[in-house]
Amino acid sequence: MTAAIILMVAVAACGDGKSGGASYKETITADQWVEKGGEVYAEIPSEEEEEPEALDSPAPATSQPGVDPSESKTADTATASSVAAPVDETPRRRVVTGRNLGNLAELFNDSNHFQLLHAERLGIDPITDLRSYYHTKRPLVRIETNEDFMVEELTHSYPYLIPEADRLLHDIGRAFRDSVKSRRGGDYRMVVTSLLRTPVTVKKLRRVNRNATEQSTHQYATTFDIAYNKFNAVSGPDDANYGDLKLILAEVIRDLHAEGRCMVKYERKSPCFHITVVR
């Protein structure tokens, strides 16, 4: 684009009676002025060619040794764009993929009759109180909250299991926690809600839960309950979808059930997986 120039031109009156011999400023292009045989006195850049004044511009990156100025400019521009972008602070629930296993009540429907046969074969004889703990025919392991699972405050049971049940409980808890992490669902532990019961605690439980049976396999220290409606967030925000966590827990239990390590009953009114160790 040809630069515009402002030139002082003395123009004589043409005898038309309008200008009266006065001088004035005329703005013409350089090419036009040259065609008239004139000489350029000054050049002023047009508005399109004026560079805007820099306000609070950062120091050029060329001061850093080994940095290409063009690359620094691009990086600075990208950084500025990322800072200026609006931040969406809307809370979201973490998405975890859990496989649909179908009707869980049909999948986990091992009857109490068969669970009781395994409990009587593998477990202890029912004890009347905790003083009998030292005289059981099988050793008992104390169950406490750990990195694999959380034990809820127990109101109708005691924190003990036979070694085989303890090992199964840890295997389920470890597999569940690892599965959730691998699917980027956060860090969660399952919650254990019931362990060893005595005839006395069973009787008390039946007062508040009519589904509880006198022939409870919990009395043999072979059985535990894992909640499927609540989970423990170990670290980070508690933003996972519990429905997905339930499906992941069901996958883990199904695999161990398929290996013949346990029998499982899906309980609705007391939302849990009722699990008895088999071997």
What does this structure look like?
- With 279 residues, the chain is of the alpha+beta class.
- Helices cover 30% and strands 19% of the residues.
- The chain has seven helices and nine strands, in the order ββααααβββαβαβαββ.
- It has helices at 30-35, 69-84, 104-107, 112-122, 163-182, 199-208, 242-258; strands at residues 4-9, 24-29, 141-142, 149-151, 160-161, 187-194, 223-235, 262-267, 272-277.
- The chain has a five-stranded mixed β-sheet. Strands 1-2 form a two-stranded antiparallel ribbon.
- Helix 5 (163-182) crosses helix 7 (242-258).
Principal-axes shape call: globular
Summarize the biggest pleated sheet.
5 strands, mixed
DSSP summary, beta strand count: 9
Kindly name the structural category. Answer: alpha+beta
Q: What level of helicity do the residues show?
A: 25-40%
Mean pLDDT: 76
Low-confidence stretches: 1-28, 38-85, 87-92
How large is the radius of gyration? 41 Å
The SSE string, one letter per element, is EEHHHHEEEHEHEHEE
For the biggest β-sheet, the strand order reads: 4-6-7-9-8
Number of H/I helices: 7
The percentage of residues in β strands lies in 15-25%
Distance between the termini: 90 Å
Question: What key phrases describe this protein's structure?
Answer:
279 residues, alpha+beta, five-stranded mixed beta sheet, two-stranded antiparallel ribbon, 7 helices, globular, disordered N terminus
